Amino acid sequence: MLTGGHSDFYSACGGWNIAGKIELVPITCGELVEPGVRVNIDEAQAHDPLYYIPNFFFVLAKSDVRTNASALVPMKLWPLQEYYIKNRTHRDIILKNRQAGVSTAVLAANSHALFTVPYERQILITHDDETSEFLLSTVHRFHRYLPPKIKPE
Description:
With 153 residues, this protein is α+β, with helices and mostly antiparallel strands. It has 6 helices and 6 strands. Helix 4 crosses helix 5 and helix 5 packs across helix 6. The chain is globular, with a radius of gyration of 16 Å.
């Protein structure tokens, strides 16, 4: 199933400029404000997914059984996620178990490229609507909580 055609995806995640291409804010050395923390980032760090993802992407923690509430926490990479990001190619086939964080790692790595590589285009394809909506909401969350200085408009 194909959801969120590229125009829907870009309008939600990056915005369109007049030429119809994603417009990114140039990243230079400077201070960025993260919730309660001041961070300095240079261009090399901005283009390194192993730095960028844990410092700027937020995920929902597993919900508390008693309250059924989920907390928004920085995305700390699990060893399998870090291995995938370090060794990925443009043609990966992944045999995996469920709940290992691989889908989130793929989304994070691809979202990093989407937010930092000018004119990057991506599409999200899943087997059903519910999964598509869940995964696309994760990408939207990654974008929503980026610090303003590096957030594509």
